[in-house]
Amino acid sequence: MVASIPPPVYFAVGPEPHEVCCPYCKQKGTTLTRRFIMSWCVRRYYCSSCGEYLGTYRRPKL
């Protein structure tokens, strides 16, 4: 039997960590943020329980 992979879930995220229910491990928790490519305007969000990637925030260009 092949394990099914959940479809991608897109979160409306801002520059700060958020409390979410992870679609992969089903645990509630605050996201972990990591800066991407040494940029202060792009952040990636990960589940604090299982570490799965949840989404990206890009600061709008002014």
Automatic annotation (TrEMBL):
InterPro entries hit by this protein: Zn_ribbon_PaaD
Any single Pfam family the record assigns to this protein: Zn_ribbon_PaaD
PaaD zinc beta ribbon domain: residues covered: 16-52
Protein name: PaaD zinc beta ribbon domain-containing protein
Organism: Stomoxys calcitrans (Stable fly)
Encoding gene per record: 106090432
